[in-house]
Design a protein that fits this description.
The chain is an alpha/beta fold. The protein has 5 helices and 14 strands. The protein folds into 3 domains: 72 residues, no CATH class; 111 residues, Leucine-rich repeat, LRR (right-handed beta-alpha superhelix); 121 residues. InterPro entries: Leu-rich_rpt (IPR001611), LRR_dom_sf (IPR032675), LRR_domain-containing (IPR050216).
């Protein structure tokens, strides 16, 4: 059963036509570092342990099943248990103004109550999570930047948003850009198959392929985006790598230009590979590495400020 998967840390079930989660899932949920169940067919009420299930296709759901369940909590509840501590009505108004601007400027939302736009989560009259995926949006209002940094999650994928974007976005990915005209990638982004990717992120993947024979096929380097197909978990957001998990994959080298993108990546894990010292300085925790085939180190092989001991570099 799923409750026996006690070592599971990453679980991506996005877009798999899932209609139900087993009760045993709650036994492992709190141990997961990453979980995505969005873009499926799950009806309310969902499992109480799962705080946010993202966008779901509810066309086949029975509304009465949710309404009659006294234990279910509506994820649009703005203030829970009438707790008025730390309430700021100015912030609430800013959140509401964004939702109204979305309704006013997107034909697909015309006539909709702002509090019914997408999938919303509120806490003490503050919008904390907003999923606007798959709503046929063509416009993002500038005032979304007034609340963007305060959101835990924000998803506008699978829409039709064209530039210019609000000031807080370099690029908005995963859009149907058929009506956007010619290539519109911003500076420092490159167009690959109709999507814009940040050049430093592509350069890092290119270096990773070049320096690791395990990622090369017939002597030729794998295309950077093809790594995604074989990876445990590599996820992009708005043209940048958001999640990079490439464990136990036989990697022997981590290129220095990882430091150009490392702080853009929310989840980074290359443990259980064969990466030798010295490691790029920006990578704070490279995890366990099998170093049996690594060359012997002396102090000159370690980065400045580090010394060699037992064939590893340690900060002095």
């Amino acid at each position: 059963s799923i409750s026996s998967l006690i070592e599971l840390r990453y679980l991506n079930l996005n877009n798999n036509l899932i209609s139900d989660l087993p009760e045993g899932f709650c036994d492992i949920y709190s141990d997961l570092d990453y979980f995505d169940i969005s873009n499926n067919l799950i009806c309310q009420p969902s499992l109480e342990c799962v705080e946010f299930i993202g966008y779901q296709n509810t066309d086949e759901c029975d509304p009465a099943a949710f309404i009659d369940n006294e234990s279910a909590v509506d994820n649009r509840d703005i203030m829970i248990n009438n707790n008025i501590e730390n309430i700021n009505f100015e912030y609430f108004q800013a959140d509401l103004d964004v939702l109204r601007a979305l309704v006013d400027n997107n034909e697909s939302l015309k006539g909709l109550d702002p509090l019914h736009v997408g999938v919303q989560q509120w806490n003490n009259m503050r919008l904390t999570d907003l999923d606007l995926s798959g709503l046929e949006l063509t416009y993002l209002p500038q005032n979304v930047c007034d609340i963007y940094s305060g959101l835990n999650t924000f998803d506008v994928s699978d829409n039709k948003i064209c530039p210019p974007y609000p000031r807080c976005f370099e690029y908005v990915g995963s859009q149907d850009t058929g009506s956007c005209g010619r290539s519109f990638c911003p500076d420092n982004y490159t167009d690959i198959d109709g999507e814009c990717y940040q050049e430093n992120h592509i350069a890092f993947l290119q270096s990773l392929v070049k320096n690791n024979t395990v990622l090369q096929q017939d002597g030729a380097g794998t295309s950077p985006l093809d790594i995604v197909q074989d990876a445990d978990l590599i996820k992009w957001k708005n043209g940048k790598i958001e999640t990079f998990v490439l464990t136990a994959s036989g990697l022997t080298n981590l290129p220095e230009n990882i430091c150009n993108v490392y702080y853009d990546i929310g989840l980074f894990d290359v443990s259980n590979n064969e990466i030798c010292q010295p490691h790029p300085l920006c990578v704070e925790n490279i995890g366990y590495q099998n170093t049996e085939d690594c060359p012997a180190l002396d102090d000159t092989a370690c980065l400045e400020g580090y010394v060699s001991f037992d064939n590893k570099c340690y900060y002095n």
